[in-house]
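During the reporting period the student researcher (J.K.) took over the structure-prediction task from the postdoctoral fellow and processed the backlog of single-chain submissions. One of the processed entries is reproduced below for the supervisory committee.
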Amino acid sequence: MKLVLLFGPQAVGKMTVGQELEKETGLKLFHNHMTIEMLEPFFGFSEDMWKISDKMREEVFRAYSKTAQEGMIFTFVWVFNKQEDWDMVEKIRSIFESEGAEVYYVELEADLDARLERNRTPNRLEHKPTKRNVEDSEKRLIQSMDDLRLNSEDGEIDAANYVKINNSHLSPKEVVDVIRKKFDFEQVSLSST
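J.K. obtained the following structure tokens:
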């Protein structure tokens, strides 16, 4: 089994790249908004919502890591200047590795202009209702840059299976080609998905 941790700042293209990677590899996509969008109508963006979301995700990881599936792609925003995010990543890694899975780290980075443009794409707004107030979403995206570090520094991620891709000018397909080549992921035939 494979676990692909696909991370980067808001609107960098994680879900869209994850969708393409799922299509090409057969790995199942679990993007962070799957739990957020389910819980936000009940709890808003409250501490309770985040706690429940974290618990749900952990249960999904524990159960899925024990299956005979090919693997999972999990997308999320990693705040590098918050220890709790490092702890979360370590917990996810250990859950999967304890079941014999290989863990791959894929970091995306993009220019602010590209991210602001992607923040408005129909695919993003379709799958992430909480982002449909685009002005508010853009405001929060820009404000987060003041105190959150959402991309790693050189050498900060010490993992053999790691790649950092600037996808400012790359299509999701081109990003997936880089990932597949770097990690030697086989492409599944379209008839088997």
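The committee noted the following: Residues 80 and 149 are 5 Å apart (CA to CA).
J.K. will present the remaining backlog at the next meeting.
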